Structures are given as structure tokens and as C-alpha cells.
């Protein structure tokens, strides 16, 4: 599965941003999908994940209540809606996929497909 993220940009604190991830080359509808992020000087961390059907989602505590993960299997697309953004949300956001798990797992080790990332910068 090939993944390409779009939508990252500069945004003011308190603003909103929608990220998209286009998938190709695999069976997207059978792939658990997730968003991770990596801030400068920090390790990559989990943001959100969603099961094949989209019925189950999982969110990081740091962003819960401010983000929504969604998918459109007919379009092979994954989305991340972010609101009330903070400067600490500045990071490269990565789309990831797994066809070896069935749960909305938060562990990076389970994800074997990764996009190139899209930069989100939140200014104070």
C-alpha cells in the first residue's frame, strides 16, 4: 500500500486543519489505518487509529476531543480533522497502515505502510 498525505500547512493557534491520506496499491478496506506525528527532536508518537470498517477509533490522550479520524473506503482515503490546535501540535504528521492487525492499535510496530509525512506548523 502506498500512502500520500496532504493538507499540512501553517496555522494559528486555536485554528483548525484537515489532513488527508490517499492510499493506492493494496486493499485499503482491509487495512487498519492510523495517524502518527513527530515533532522536532522528539520520537514519533501515536495520534489516532481506525479499524477497517471505521466503527472503532482510538485517540491519543493529548489530542482527544480535538481530533476526528475518518475513512472513506470507496475512495481509499483517510482523514484527520484537527481543531483547537496548539503550538505543541507542530509536527510532521504521518499516515500509516497495517494489514496484520484488526484493532485500532496505537503501537507503531504494527504499522508497516507509511507515507512521507506532511508538515503542520502551529504558531502562538
Question: What can be said about this structure in brief?
Answer:
The chain is mainly β and 124 residues long.
Describe it.
Strand 4 (32-38) and strand 5 (45-50) form a beta hairpin. The mean pLDDT is 96. Helix content is 0%, strand content 48%. The strands form two sheets. Strands 2, 4, 5, 6, 9, 10 and 11 form a seven-stranded mixed β-sheet that branches. The chain has strands at 2-6, 10-12, 17-24, 32-38, 45-50, 57-59, 67-72, 77-82, 91-98, 113-114, 118-123.
Number of helices: 0
Computed structural class: mainly beta
How much strand content do the residues show?
over 45%
Overall geometry comes to globular
Following the backbone from N to C, one meets helices and strands in this order, namely: EEEEEEEEEEE
Helix content: under 10%
Largest sheet: 7 strands, mixed
Entry keywords:
0% helix; seven-stranded mixed beta sheet; 124 residues; 11 strands; four-stranded antiparallel beta sheet; mainly beta
List the helices and strands and how they pair.
Elements: E1 2-6, E2 10-12, E3 17-24, E4 32-38, E5 45-50, E6 57-59, E7 67-72, E8 77-82, E9 91-98, E10 113-114, E11 118-123
Parallel strand pairs: 2-11
Antiparallel strand pairs: 1-3, 3-8, 4-5, 4-9, 5-6, 7-8, 9-10, 9-11
Amino acid at each position: 500500500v502506498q500512502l500520500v498525505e496532504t493538507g499540512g500547512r501553517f496555522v494559528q493557534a486555536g485554528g483548525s486543519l484537515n489532513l488527508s491520506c490517499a492510499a493506492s496499491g493494496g486493499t485499503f478496506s482491509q487495512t487498519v489505518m492510523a495517524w502518527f506525528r513527530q515533532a522536532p527532536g522528539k520520537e514519533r508518537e501515536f495520534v489516532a487509529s481506525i479499524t477497517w470498517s471505521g466503527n472503532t477509533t482510538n485517540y491519543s490522550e493529548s489530542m482527544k476531543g480535538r481530533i476526528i479520524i475518518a475513512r472513506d473506503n470507496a475512495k481509499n482515503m483517510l482523514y484527520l480533522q484537527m481543531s483547537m490546535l496548539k503550538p505543541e501540535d507542530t509536527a510532521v504528521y504521518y499516515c500509516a497502515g497495517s494489514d496484520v492487525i484488526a484493532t485500532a492499535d496505537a503501537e507503531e510496530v504494527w504499522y508497516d505502510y507509511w507515507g512521507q509525512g506532511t508538515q503542520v506548523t502551529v504558531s502562538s
